[in-house]
Amino acid sequence: MHASRTGRRALLFCAMIFPALAAAQRVEISIDASKSGPTISRNLFGQFAEHLGHGIYEGIWVGPDSKIPNTRGIRNDVVAALKAIKVPNVRWPGGCFADEYHWRQGIGAQRAVTLNPNWGGVIEPNTFGTNEFMDFIDQIGSEAYVSVNLGSGTPQEAAEWFEYMTTAQPTTLEKERAANGHPAPYKVEFLGLGNESWDCGGNMTPEYYLSQAKIYSHFVRNFNPGQQSKDQMLKIAVGPGGDGPRWNDWTETVMKAYQQHTWSWDINGLSMHSYTVVKWPPAYKSVGFGETEYAEILKSTLEMDDLIKKHSAIMDKYDPEKKVALVVDEWGGWYAPLPGSNPGFLVQQNSLRDAILAALNLNIFARHGDRVRMSNIAQMINVLQAMILTDKDKMVLTPTYYVYKMYLPFQDSTSVPVTFDAGTYRQGDISLPRVDAVAAKGKDGKLWVEVTNVDPNQAAEVELKLAGVTAKSATGQTLSAPKVDSVNTLEAPNGVVPKAVSAEAEGGKLTLKLEPKSVTVVAVE
Ligand code: AHR
Description:
alpha/beta; eight-stranded parallel barrel; 26% strand; binds alpha-L-arabinofuranose
């Protein structure tokens, strides 16, 4: 009697301390490695850096005279961190800022001091301009995605900017670029034809936007000799900003015109913006929240799948060959500004919930990889769902950063079909799929599997049922933390960091044990 009571107490103790051990959910994930789906483009892991708050100034640019270690004014710690996640492209200079940006104010020895009316009305020193952005892109080993000012600028201004950046011929603008320190033409991989032209980019109707976009598409030329045949610059038009008739109409109008386009204009991508916000103005806390807010935000983020399906269906009508990519170039969690911060600076913390949110979205993009070939999370540093938070000479890597690091093997991988019964996680009246998963053959030839355990209370025992490959083991990394709102801070930077995970096949079965609320990436060997 006594012994069994002790045993029960021990079990109860175990269940309290390790609720995960008490009730692991069994999940079977079938992966057929002999089949392949769409490529998971490296460009799905793109970033966005706008002149907003401390996204550029302090986050990237400290100036050459700063005591913070830097190379030509660009902070070394941030560059090293970004190099490690192989950022494929960076969208710049905005956002709303792009449609008020005049590139000439940001070149040469004398910079114009202007204002940033969109974001706090603060001074814009223009010390970070074209040459600095391109230097930054070069230092982190990325590609430039430059959005031109289609709202308050002119086609001539944008055309001259691209001549300044890309020509190798001895024009006046080429000489000016050389005099500013860069004789060789810059490579511009992506051109953004405005930003949110239906709102901060000029409140245009789709028809009016289209007539403007055609003009910019024709006249904004890339002259870089290395980008004339292969590696041509891709042009990305403004697309929808949500769900419903207004946005369907926008996609419909642009795509219908694309179907009938002539030689003199073209687009290769249609942008889509969709933040996880639930309430407007953003009211959810980025730290100091509980399970209900965790479930509400994740439920909302999963709407991305439906949104992509709806706009892809419209695109399919006019572009069945999927020549035009759907480019989700602004997405992520958008929460209430941190108390004490400038509300115009969009400062928020980044928690384990954001890591899970990022994984769920990256998986959605990967599953739609035939149409969704690029995405840019908003934003890279110190703004919204950032990779990095800085404070003077210090920096901290966020849980979202670690997801991007763990997903590196998926860059330019080939997706492999995955089937599973996700089960259900319930919180109040919210039901969510308990797990999510993607698999792909990496460029290294290995089979990579990602599994997200959304359930914050129960561990998962995931049996990988593999066809087309014999597996002995799985090794990789897992990211979890004690609480749904666990964060990394300057004082405690290791609250949410990946740790090693592995499993050996036993009796022909390969079973991964996943912690509650975790993101796991393994290579199957
Ligand atoms: O990312 C912040 C802002 O959100 C961007 O400037 C704008 O394009 C969007 O509305």
